[in-house]
Design a protein that fits this description.
single chain; 158 residues; alpha/beta; Rossmann fold; 4-stranded parallel β-sheet; binds 4-nitrophenyl phosphate
């Protein structure tokens, strides 16, 4: 089993959405027994909370149900997961600090996209509805590429 962890600041907006989108691709490709997915936050702000209602609603419109509860990323995650995807450069730095710079497993989500996308998945927390939809667009563009990388033998999604 290969394991992918998505990480943002609060683990209530961006990374739970990434987890939900990625999980739905895994299910579409019938890979539930070979790919594991989870999400976590670099902060303790929202531990135990469900995903933000605005993000749950935006995801629901695309047929994605978000069921995760916020948890904080731990050093153990760096050994347990095969690939760790940071939503923005702050998250990336936090993860590299946790790994003491030696994990080799941490990637920035935008590494899977071309330069027409922003480097950072924009934090939608303090903004309007359209911010949540933009985040989902970016995650839906990147997730198939992440899955192709970790599971190259699976057929690409149409
Ligand atoms: P996330 O969004 O990192 O995508 O879950 C945020 C959620 C909460 C806060 C910031 C960003 N906050 O400051 O509480």
């Amino acid at each position: 089993m290969k394991r992918v962890l998505f990480v943002c600041l609060g683990n209530i907006c961006r990374s739970p959405a990434a987890e939900g989108i990625f999980q739905s691709l895994v299910a579409k490709r019938g890979l539930e027994n070979s790919i594991g997915v989870d999400s976590a936050g670099t902060s303790s702000y929202h531990i135990g909370e469900p995903a933000d209602k605005r993000m749950r609603q935006a995801a629901e419109l695309r047929g994605i149900e978000l069921l995760s509860r916020s948890r904080m990323v731990s050093p153990r995650d760096l050994s347990q997961f095969d690939l760790i995807i940071a939503m923005d450069r702050n998250n990336y730095r936090e993860l590299e600090a946790l790994a003491e710079g030696s994990s080799g497993k941490v990637r920035l989500l935008s590494e899977y996209l071309d330069e027409n996308w922003p480097r950072d998945v924009p934090d939608p927390y303090y903004g309007g509805e359209e911010g949540f939809s933009k985040v989902l667009d970016m995650l839906e563009a990147a997730c198939p590429r992440i899955l192709d990388e970790i599971c190259p033998e699976s057929p690409p999604t149409a």
